[in-house]
Structures are given as structure tokens and as C-alpha cells.
């Protein structure tokens, strides 16, 4: 995907998937039937703070308001973790991921892991009976 095709949020973070796959935080997809459950899929990324961002964050913290540098960093981390999870699901033959959850953990001062996980499934569209 080229930079021109990427979607950016108001903070400048890259958003949106690179893959054609259905994703949801719920345990089912309205209008679809789960044909087969393939199992757990996950994607993660580990990010460290940057000295330039830290300096800007200190100034922003003194005057108050959103720390956009970190908002952008976390937004891109979320998208990368979700994208890696979707890629694993596709490699396993899934066309959807349900029950998606995200978690973060500190690894050391200034570095954090962001993990996205869910259940890879094969779904089929349900025909309307009208």
C-alpha cells in the first residue's frame, strides 16, 4: 500500500487495514453464519518512545492538552497489531476474525507491547428468507 492510499486520522496516525477480512469485537457477525472456527490469531508490536517526541510531550504536559505525538504512536501501534492479526488469520484460511480484544503491557521504561487477538473463522453470508 502506498502512502497515498493510506487513511490518516486527525492525529496523523495511519489507520485502516491492508487486508480484505471481516473483523468484529462481538462473538458473531450479523448476516453471517460461522461455518468453521480456525482458532486464536494474534498480532503484536513493541514500540519505544522517541527522544524528540518526549521533549514535545514534556512541553505539552506543562501547558495541558492532548499529547498528539503519543496519540499518533499508539494509533499506529494499534493498526499494526490489528494488521498482523488479520494477516495471520488470512494465512490460516479465515475470512473473518471475531471477538477481537486488545491489551498493552510495559516491557521496560519507555517501551510497550500492544497485542491484538481474536478468533479466526470462516463465515458465509446468510440468505434472507423474505
Can you offer a commentary on this structure?
- The protein starts with 6 loop residues before the first strand and ends in a 5-residue tail after the last strand.
- A hairpin with a 2-residue loop joins strand 5 (96-108) and strand 6.
- The protein has 130 residues and is of the alpha+beta class.
- Strands 3-5-6-4 form a four-stranded mixed β-sheet. A two-stranded antiparallel ribbon has the order 1-2.
- It has one domain (11-125): Translation Initiation Factor IF3, CATH 3.30.110.
- The chain contains two helices and six strands; from the N terminus they run E-E-E-E-H-H-E-E.
- Global Rg: 18 Å
Number of domains: 1
Query: Numbering strands along the chain, what is their spatial order in the largest sheet?
Result: 3-5-6-4
CATH architecture: 2-Layer Sandwich
The CATH topology label is: Translation Initiation Factor IF3
Q: Classify the helix fraction into a percent range.
A: 25-40%
> Helices and strands, in N-to-C order?
EEEEHHEE
Strand count, sense and closure of the main sheet?
A: 4 strands, mixed
Bin the strand percentage: 35-45%
Tally of DSSP β-strands: 6
Structural classification: alpha+beta
Q: Point out poorly predicted stretches.
A: none
Q: What overall geometry do the principal axes of the alpha carbons give? A: elongated
Amino acid at each position: 500500500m502506498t502512502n497515498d492510499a493510506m487513511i490518516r486520522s486527525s492525529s496523523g496516525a495511519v489507520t485502516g487495514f491492508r487486508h480484505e477480512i471481516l473483523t468484529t469485537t462481538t462473538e458473531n457477525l450479523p448476516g453471517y453464519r460461522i461455518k468453521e472456527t480456525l482458532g486464536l490469531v494474534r498480532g503484536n508490536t513493541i514500540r519505544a518512545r522517541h527522544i524528540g517526541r518526549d521533549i514535545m510531550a514534556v512541553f505539552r504536559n506543562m501547558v495541558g492538552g492532548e499529547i498528539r505525538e503519543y496519540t499518533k504512536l499508539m494509533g499506529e501501534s494499534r493498526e499494526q497489531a490489528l494488521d498482523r492479526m488479520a494477516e495471520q488469520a488470512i494465512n490460516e484460511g479465515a475470512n473473518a476474525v471475531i471477538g477481537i480484544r486488545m491489551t498493552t503491557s510495559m516491557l521496560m521504561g519507555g517501551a510497550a507491547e500492544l497485542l491484538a487477538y481474536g478468533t479466526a473463522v470462516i463465515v458465509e453470508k446468510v440468505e434472507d428468507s423474505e
